[in-house]
Design goal:
2 copies of one chain form a homodimer. By secondary structure, chain A is of the alpha/beta class. Helices cover about 40% and strands about 15% of the residues of chain A. The structure holds a DNA duplex.
Chain lengths: ~375, ~375
Amino acid sequence: MDFDAHGDPAHLREDGGMKAATIRDVAERAEVSVASVSRVLNGAGPVTEGTRNRVLEAAKALQYVPHSGARSLSTSKTQTIGVILPDLYGEFFSELIRGMDLAARSLGYHLIVSSSHDDAEEASAAIRSMRGRVDGLIVLSPHLDAANLAAGLAGRTPILLMNGGDGAGRPSIVVDNHGGAVQAVEHLVATGRRRIAHIAGPAGNLEAEARLAGYLEAMARAGLPTTVVDGEFTQPSGHAAGRELARRELRPDAVFAANDIMAVGAMLALQEAGLRVPEDVALIGFDDVPIASLVRPGLTTLRIHIADTGRSALERLVRLINAAGEAVADTACEVVRPELVVRPSSQPATSTQSNSGGRPGATAETPSLKGENS
Amino acid sequence: MDFDAHGDPAHLREDGGMKAATIRDVAERAEVSVASVSRVLNGAGPVTEGTRNRVLEAAKALQYVPHSGARSLSTSKTQTIGVILPDLYGEFFSELIRGMDLAARSLGYHLIVSSSHDDAEEASAAIRSMRGRVDGLIVLSPHLDAANLAAGLAGRTPILLMNGGDGAGRPSIVVDNHGGAVQAVEHLVATGRRRIAHIAGPAGNLEAEARLAGYLEAMARAGLPTTVVDGEFTQPSGHAAGRELARRELRPDAVFAANDIMAVGAMLALQEAGLRVPEDVALIGFDDVPIASLVRPGLTTLRIHIADTGRSALERLVRLINAAGEAVADTACEVVRPELVVRPSSQPATSTQSNSGGRPGATAETPSLKGENS
DNA sequence: CTGTTAGCGCGTTCAA
DNA sequence: TTGAACGCGCTAACAG
């Protein structure tokens, strides 16, 4: 054969290793304009049944897949929302993301996660690297400055704060940490505990500070002396705190940990020290992550419907995105109120009485039934 | 004042609600060309100290942030990798993603996750919606067809399979599920167990099937009768399976669950039935998710360094991306070998002897020290 | 109903 | 060293 001067475009070969087909290739093959192809593929605009079929056929033949990046550039909509979080460790964040992912998928959005932003500096870089890549941002920065900074940096991209602060007039979602802590203490007091210690979260973390404040306030109101041990929201730190408390001369008869995983750590430490939970020491955590119901004794805690909160956060952000410019009405700080879930770890020491938490509204434990895939 | 025909561009106003500044705005303000701005901001190409400063100044004044979407389009590099997974539930996936995120961040990549793709249909849609949005894909589809389909769909975008199959000549990472299961059974046999039951994962899941096959083979080799109960990789299913096994006439003296969370469920069920672990029934799981070391008794399991595996997977994919076109040498299936971690849940029934798992290479438990942030 | 054209915002030759 | 112009792939006006 001689020179094949008019050879097929490279992309016609099945998987010859060449570049992927573009809308233009489809247009050529279908012998129509790119506009028509676009119209057909997006179902928008009037198209003849004939051209429609030719386009569809050509697209299939070329295994054409639209380039979402290019589409985003021209529509200035990425259908993607970014989630900035300090860490990706533990069940709390994974549950939150799971909830967001669920909502995102049903709303036609993608999720781009970016973690490990402890200091405002890193978070800032992460946020600006999101420009042109996302339609909105959800920022979980437990540090005050980071959040404010984030809000500023975002420019005009809608942003939802979940840093534990009140949002300062910006759309935000916050857990009623203070109220939850008060509930925890009141529950313990109501069930006969008096020497109630608190394992705090890391300093500078707004959530941790609010929980500590709630503990201190409730204890003061009850006229009880306080004991605070530092923790950092991790299992090991909870374990260490528990071990220390077990060694104290005046051992506490109850421990309120600022989150579940520290409570679990403390539970193990207490048990290793030969103490019984709840007989010798009652235990209560915060968050109600899945593991709370799997340890023995089951851990009493303050339930936040984590995945639901994540879902709701994402839905709200999408609403903000769709209302961009207009309804600046959403400047509210939505409050999630934790719900006391009484499990065996906080049963009264006096007797093995029934499941009454001592507070109306407390939820009796129902077998938690969720698991893990592999 | 009269008409301000030459008014400042809208974006000059601080945060007047107008669009964000583009590279062109910066160029105008600095009185240079966009090319120079690009050169300065990307540190590429020769630039005079003077223009450099003017550009930097203008950029700062305008709070200019490059539009990564546009950049991606022109460089055809998104610096983003997509992760397709069937679900986002449980510690396994969250640990995996954590590892990937760690690697991604240190390599300058973003992570876009997309879950809930049970059937091949959905996964397919998810994958094609990634085109032009990511530089590569990591696909965790435990179903055979889905994976093959994925590989085809990806076109020319690098893809790394982690579906439990051998990858069929494509780059992939797979856990030696069969070998792990054999280790589990041999460990139980070596410590005196004979009636060893297996709680299997969902049918159709390659990982689950390989673990089942390993169990069956090892049992046959040991000349022992098999007992298999169906599960679905979830805690509730493990609980149900455990309850059923506890009721059996010829109760097993050991249970090997196809993953940790089912083992935990089974453990709780056995204990609720009044059985002692490990005295009456030894228990062993698979994966070594964080919770395995937090339940009591601590769960013996086959450790996969989940986060490390995720990290390594991402690094390999990035390598594939950078080698695009050239080194098709990477067609290998990397195998991750699980490591037996002996914890109290599988101690010999005969006595409370020391931690020897009976197999060389078995890792004695060291206190697991990781926690959760809130 | 269809085709042409102009951007979206940025990187990048190629001259000057 | 700098700038003008083109292209990435697609959508959206605007003609025809």
